[in-house]
Design brief:
251 residues; alpha/beta; Rossmann fold; 7 helices; globular
Length: 251
Amino acid sequence: MTTPILAIEDLHVEVEGKEILKGLSLTVERGHVHAIMGPNGSGKSTLSHTLMGHPHYQITQGSILWEGRRINDWKADERARNGLFLAFQYPMAIPGVSVVSFLREAMKARFGGALPVKEFRARIQEEMARLGIDESFATRSVNDGFSGGEKKRHEILQMALLQPKLAVLDETDSGLDIDALRIVADGINRLRNPDVGILLVTHYQRILNYVQPDYVNVMVQGQIVRSGGKGLAQELERTGYESFKPEEVTR
């Protein structure tokens, strides 16, 4: 039996003494796209940041297994080097650091060495063209003065270049117009292959019209309360989250 890329087992997480995740379990196999849907305050972003190793999110119980290895104590950079990628809901600006410099250092850390300049430049130009990003973008400071759509395209550009084993996309569709949404969704779809897992965190079904999930997981009050196929997202659109209760855990 193949070891899943990610297995979350009975995960409890506190932030500033308040428990946010309350026994969450989820398994993501290679090649599968899992959507996580839930209302504000359900713990979706807490899950994303905990998976990436943010120090403010304290695991009090349970395990995160990465390719069968328990990584509760791994630092964020160690997780990133091993192929875990997080696209932020609100990407940070880094004034004075150009996009091209940032990407070059990120790729060097991810793959254990720098690509030859010519090959690196060709890779960036190719991916920017696919995402409809002007070449001048590369010389701008990371996310400094970027529009919401530019920030999200930059996240997808990073994802394409870093080739993660698991991409956690925390509300990547937030604030995108329909054209930007389609471009971002196309970038996500191009990453899909039998070796990559994707965890797509979202409020709404609209991105799932472009990125077809293998599984939809409903998250309420720090737990996965129901899992199913694409039809579950459509049910949520009709009924909202009120009909899903934490005590009604079904898988």
